[in-house]
User: Fold this.
Amino acid sequence: MSTTPTQVHANLTEEQVRQISGELAEPEWMLETRLEALEALGTLDMPKVIRTPGRDWTNLHDLDFEALVDPLNAAEEKDQFGPDDVDVLSWADALVEHEELVRKHFGSIVDPQENYLTALSTALFTTGTVIYVPEGVDAEDVTIRTEQNSQSLFNYTLVITEENSSVTILERQSTGTELEEEQYYSGIVEIDAGENSYVQYGSLQNLSEDSYCFTAKRGVTDTYATINWIEGNIGSKLTKTETSTVLEGDSSESQIVGAFYGHNDQHFDLDVKVWHRAEHTTADLVTRGVTDDVSRSVYEGVQDVGRDAWDTSSYQRENTLMLSDESEADASPKLIINNHDTEASHSATVGQIDEEDLLYMTSRGVTPRLARNMLVAGFFVPVLEEVAVDELREDLEALIQERLRD
Amino acid sequence: MSSEQDHLKETDTEARFDFKQEERSAVRSEKGLTEEVVRLISEDKDEPEWMLERRLRALKQYQAMPMPTDWPGQPDLSGLDVEEIVPYIRPDVDKREGVDDWDELPDDIKDTFEKLGIPEAERKALSGVGAQYESEIVYQNMQEQWEEKGVIFMNMDQAVKDHPEIVKEHFMTTCVPPSDNKFAALHGAVWSGGSFVYVPEDVTVEMPVQAYFRMNSEGMGQFEHTLIVAEPGSEVHYIEGCSAPKYGKHNLHSGGVEVFVKEGAHVQYSTVQNWSKNTYNLNTKRALVEEDATMEWISGSMGSKATMLYPCSILKGRNATDTHITIAFAGEGQDIDTGAKVYHNAPNTKSTIESKSISKDGGRTNYRGLVHIADGAEGSSTAVECDALMFDNESTSDTMPYMEIEESKVDVAHEATVGKIGDEDIFYLQSRGLDDDDAKKMIVAGFIEPITEELPIEYAVELNRLIELEMEGSLG
Assistant:
């Protein structure tokens, strides 16, 4: 409920939005949604960040979006493919093949006008993927790789799974061409998991450290459905990201596994949320991260148990390892419980490398630097073990290894 | 536990709290917060000019500040109309500084405190007692042995006159300035009564001192100020209790507590508050803790319509230690938003926060906490543990902790659990012959035991009794 006014984009016009929509040969209803989002920019605020009296833990108002956003010059290198029985489509193709499906779901989970950044994304996105998994299909290896080659890039991903299907999706974001100016990446992901379907969605963000990154990833589960998220955040200068599941169907489940590693002056603001809205739902949120140099992490985890969410199980763990005195790690794990038939817990810790472990290893002849690196790598193991997708786990491990100092 | 049983028999807690006396006032201010009211209070107390100036400055700050409304999940304060509150009622007792013999009090006031069991507790277990009725202390006594050692325990109004040098230095300056929040500013403008405790260097006050605050009149506000100065190496345990009967109009309690814990000193501050369920309880309590000193907060929050209270320790000196033990119980129509704040501003400081809450019959409890570890506070550690027990599906319970960590050489742990009362536990106890109600009471007593065992026995018994009455739904 911040009252700080948000800057209104002076350099964004209806014509630009019409041009983007036209190039994608979009139907009228989609253009309308974009134009409404554009118009709402003037009244919308930034996404919520943790506030305590006198302090915003992440300051988004200072970012100069007018300078960061260059709507008509989006450029990217993109791979998106999957097995034959799954539709992995660009937006243009999706609108030809599944217009009604897209119309039904687009913007239904992440409200285009939820905040300034979702509206900006909706109005300006030029690229994205629609993944449609028909009834009964089991699919692995859906891969989306996005390499940003322009100052700004807006990406939109929509996943729809029908009854009794399953799918594993890996998405990677990286920077191809690094520019003189700062860059901005924005991604919205919506997942509608049909009855008894299983979605595993892994994402690995490794953007340039001169870029700003905003993502909103949200899924809704039908009865017996599962959405598991894997969140790896390595790159960017500042990331504001939300990963969340609305457990709408009875007996549905969600796991959110996150790992981040900040160094230099990186800033990660990570929201992890689950809304229990039905009976017998289960959630497990696990995040581990490291802050080094003058980097900073802000973690907010919310387990919200609604009035009708009988027999809820909900668990959350967050651990931060601080490698330097100048880094900062803030955490706020919240429990909001409106149904008493609930087993819920959360825990959060912040600490540094254990001196005794270090001494033990150096006394066995390991150099202090190597010992430290081994302990940092070891710190991530409990999270990596939860990453059920081998390929993603290996990539994440490799990126963590790269970041360790010689 | 025979003494506990006896005590239970002796005290009928419901009758003890929820009775009313006819209002008796010598001076009664107008409703609302105006400069005239502030001047009236100051004049009626014959205060020095500097205190009036502080009041007027606080009033300006109060008027300039907005009501807190944008905290996530904060209690609804829309039913509170400060302009309808009578901020000052001086009871018509003969001696303004408080009598030191219960028999010198007017019968109805004496009767009030007798019913609350305060004189008896004083005889049994306390070093000193202060009793406040409406806006002023009416009874004040301190055992001679402590007075001889230079311990001062007097009402705050008197301390302004008798010890201006200590009060001037400490009163709403560095610990709780009126600018801290809207209700601290309100308090600074219209404060009245409360306790002043001064413990000289290296003196240990072995038995607790206690103050009891009773609001009797309808629609009034009580704004007592407590200032505790514990000189280096000293030790004191202060207990406050509060109650008020229930009326149709809302009452407001907005106390201010400032504790100065100097080098190596140890202060324990225990509260059992049982305001009536139409009272808004909006307090500011804070301790400044110096090197090697220890501050312990123990709070039982039972009554009130809405409570917003987050006792705070600022650990300023090396090796300073803080302990928070809090218990909240919210029944029908109650919203208890409470928790703890700790600022670790020096190396090797330690804090532990243990919070338990119970919600029942539509009550809402919230743990709201802030642990801040400043850059340079190396070697600091904090452990926060919150447990919530919920009885039924009308009740809610949230935990909203914040941890701001700017220093790497620290050990920070937060844990919270929420659970319903265990069907298996109840079944087990029932199979041993207990009925459902007794089984639930026993489970709750076990749940809060870590808290009650830290309290003096009289308070532990009272807390248990209050919770039992809440469980029976018999407290109004």
Q: What stands out?
A: The radius of gyration of chain A is 21 Å. Chain A has nine helices and 20 strands. The CA atoms of residues 303 and 335 of chain A lie 5 Å apart. Chain A touches chain B through 38 residues (CB under 8 Å).
